[in-house]
Amino acid sequence: MSNLSELGEFLRVRRAALQPEDVGLLNYGIRRVPGLRREELAMLAGVSNTYYTRLEQGLSTNASESVIGSIAQALGLNTDERAHLFNLARPGKTKRRTLTKPDKARPGTLRLVRSMFTTPAIVLGRRSEVLAWNPLGHRLVAGHLDLAAPDSPSTRPNMTRMLFLDPHTRELYSHWQKEATRAVASLRLLAGMSSDDPELATLVGELTMKSPEFATMWAKHPVENCMSGLKHMHNPEVGDLELNFEVLTQNDESGHRILMFTADPGTPAAEALQLLRADTDEPKAAKTIGTGQTVSA
User: Strand runs (DSSP E) across the chain, as ranges?
Assistant: First the structure.
């Protein structure tokens, strides 16, 4: 996933999505391809057509911040999309990472997740792989998998892979298309920041080959930093749930996140979570939580 080739593709896709009337230009002549012409976008951004063409062709590696900002404004990019464009256009700013051993959650993070008896919680790695979950989080999103699956990198689930390739997970989300688009948008944002990550490239390649739906969404270059919102789920044990989700990102270079689900008090979803929790019996017994360790109440 070369940043410069990704930059060219991102610019072409976003330019093709704009019509002249969207940016206050007259639509004249027959357009052989959809969207703005290169020279129109270059004019709006205040750069030469030759220079902009080099950017789309991945031939320029030293675009200034002002030029990138002007192009972002001309394309009408939002905050997340603008940040993604900067990541792609300035590959020299990307810090290369060398992983010498399998990723794992910090002990303090595990203690925090273990303490959440009433809140489904999942610890996610940089590529949305499950590093740990508490029993309620496991029952909510992947009760058909082994509770200890996150213990080993060879059996560790990946939330994005499951969303596209696991039939049980697909049935879990009532609004699957929305959930899938959100997942791809998050993965695109990550790809712009981690073009040197071979495991991420392998994941994208696998999903592109095995899921036509993923390939179609990926080609559209959606970008979104999804930190909170609503998820509509259908758990096989307790039925339909409308849950709030929050993502807490750790303030280090690990890229680890904690995904938590809550229900509004007094709602059917709150009752459903209570039923799901009753079966875990977490506060009354020692439980293995997908970390190779046990904890007692």
Answer: 121-124, 130-133, 228-235, 239-249, 257-262, 287-288, 294-295
